[in-house]
């Protein structure tokens, strides 16, 4: 990774994602996230969604919440592809458009989806955001 400090909000998001992919979540949070970080997969306050996808439908708070999310997700799925393709900054938000393909460890089914990641920014740090995906594909891959 480049040792230059990020210059734009897009650079911050890219650096955060790079550290996350390298398994350096503590460093990603310490360097690029606010203390009141909050992350939602799909929609918030959605018990029906949470029953189909245990890490979706509610807010993950702080680094511990985010670690719980990634532990649940990658405890069930192997990431075959995860490609953030396009980054757009509008006001205090960064939108990431991409694609993923995951394989469920037990069912061996694939979950493939385009995605949009919304990162809310505050003073050059990530305050939180939301991840929009094809939740049907993810839920279906979890069922034999």
Please explain how this structure is put together:
The protein has 144 residues and is of the alpha+beta class. The chain has a single domain (9-141), classed as Roll (Nuclear Transport Factor 2, Chain: A), CATH 3.10.450. Helix content is 34%, strand content 41%. The protein has helices spanning 9-21, 25-32, 47-52, 62-76, 135-141; strands at residues 33-41, 59-61, 77-90, 93-104, 110-122, 125-132. The protein has a 6-stranded mixed sheet with strand order 2-1-6-5-4-3. A hairpin with a 2-residue loop joins strand 5 (110-122) and strand 6. Helix 1 (9-21) packs antiparallel against helix 2. The mean pLDDT is 95.
What order do the helices and strands come in, and which of them pair?
Elements: H1 9-21, H2 25-32, E1 33-41, H3 47-52, E2 59-61, H4 62-76, E3 77-90, E4 93-104, E5 110-122, E6 125-132, H5 135-141
Parallel strand pairs: 1-6
Antiparallel strand pairs: 1-2, 3-4, 4-5, 5-6
Q: What fraction, in percent, of the residue positions are helical? A: 25-40%
CATH class category label:
Alpha Beta
- Gyration radius from CA atoms, angstroms: 15 Å
Task: Report low-confidence residues grouped into runs of 5 or more.
Answer: none
The class by helix and strand makeup works out as: alpha+beta
The N- to C-terminal Cα distance equals 40 Å
Would you report the number of β strands?
Answer: 6
Overall number of structural domains? 1
Summarize this entry quickly.
The chain has 144 residues and is an alpha+beta fold. The protein is built from 5 helices and 6 strands; from the N terminus they run H-H-E-H-E-H-E-E-E-E-H. Helix 1 runs antiparallel to helix 2.
């Amino acid at each position: 990774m480049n040792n230059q400090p990020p210059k734009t909000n897009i650079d911050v998001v890219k650096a955060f994602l790079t550290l996350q992919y390298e398994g350096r979540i503590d460093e990603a949070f310490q360097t690029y996230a606010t203390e009141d970080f909050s992350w939602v997969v799909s929609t918030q306050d959605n018990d029906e969604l949470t029953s189909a996808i245990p890490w979706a439908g509610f807010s993950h708070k702080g680094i511990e919440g985010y670690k719980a999310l990634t532990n649940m997700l990658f405890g069930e799925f192997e990431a075959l592809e995860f490609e953030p393709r396009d980054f757009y900054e509008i006001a205090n938000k960064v939108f990431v458009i991409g694609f993923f393909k995951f394989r469920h460890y037990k069912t061996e089914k694939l979950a493939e989806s385009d995605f949009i990641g919304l990162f809310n920014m505050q003073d050059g740090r990530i305050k939180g955001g939301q991840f929009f995906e094809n939740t049907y594909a993810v839920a279906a891959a979890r069922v034999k």
